[in-house]
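Model it.
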Amino acid sequence: MALARDGVLLAEAAEVGGRATNALGLIEKVLTESKNVRAEIAAIAVGLGPGSYTGIRAAIAVAQGWQLARGIKLLGVNSVDAIAAQAQAEQFFGRVNVVVDAQRDEFYLATWEISSAACREVSPLKIVTAAEMEKRRVGGEMFAGPETGRILFPSAAMVARLAAGRADFVSGENLEPVYLRLTNFIKAPAGRGIII
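Modeled.
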């Protein structure tokens, strides 16, 4: 979680490791550290992924709930854009493949041209196989992301920075996670349950 005003970071809090997230606790920590209250929040920017299905859905749910309760503005930021911007901030320059694990021996991959003056996507986000990743590695290509190459995560502070000055707000029901493959859910047949 991060809190910014006019693009200036006021406070940031994060949990490291594990799958459980105390989102409300992180919100409280950021508000307390920045000496702000909930009523002062005018907009929420949320990372849309790709990434952890549960984490992204939880973040979107918190943003949607806040909008319902307070009528604030919402917008989404692609997590790969945040990783590329973080690479630029850390002066990781050149043609960089931004990579996120997509599970099933596949990876989300987008290629960026990054310099001190610009951060430009040259190949849009797609899913590639582990074999394709290995081929690129052997070819000497540069990588950045949570699991490979230069280890970078899409930080809340970078999401806030990328959101500063944007005005493409959406209603909560229009926040859509970034998925490149169809999600498959199978509903259990009626009558399944505990028998006593």
